[in-house]
Amino acid sequence: MSEAKWYVVHTYSGYENKVKANIDKTVENRHLEAQILEVRVPLEDVVETKNGVQKVTQKKMFPGYVLIHMIMNDDTWYVVRNTRGVTGFVGPGSKPVPLTDEEMAPLGIRRENYVVDYEVGDSVKVIAGAWADTVGVVQSINAAKQSLTINVELFGRETPVEISFAEVKKL
């Protein structure tokens, strides 16, 4: 099986988030989670000054483009290419060209591989992100996406949350 690489997809301008949502939904429906690992619309923080007040907003780094971390094969190519709002892959002709590690570095997307010793049923503490200081129980481990699905208590009910390996530590 080949290795997953990052590809760039051209979209209609303003449809980047819609394309991301459509691809995510298709991946879930067709059970392609092992082949299409991640879809991103790269954002950057921009400081705007209006009427003397500084405000930080997020803007798209590449309007009209979406990054996809996937294993390229006929099925994944077809799914992405035939998503509403996608005009095509970036590359000569119909052959998509993956981004190199040097091209990915300035985007803040790192290829760090974490070696973890988590098992289903282990208790972990979230140390970063929106769920910081939350304790949960590991429900599943996705080595390809380098993430865990943990159950956290939210409004008195167990809720599954996907967390990156980098954001948790074992209790």
From TrEMBL:
It comes from the Bacteria. Residues 3-111 form the NusG-like N-terminal domain. SMART domains: NGN. CDD domains: KOW_NusG, NGN_Bact_1. It comes from Faecalicatena fissicatena. InterPro entries: NGN, NGN-like_dom, NGN_dom_sf, NusG-like, Rib_uL2_dom2, Transcrpt_antiterm_NusG, Transcrpt_antiterm_NusG_bac_CS, Translation_prot_SH3-like_sf. The gene is nusG. Pfam families: NusG. HAMAP family: NusG (MF_00948). Keywords: Transcription, Transcription antitermination, Transcription regulation, Transcription termination. Belongs to the NusG family. This is Transcription termination/antitermination protein NusG.
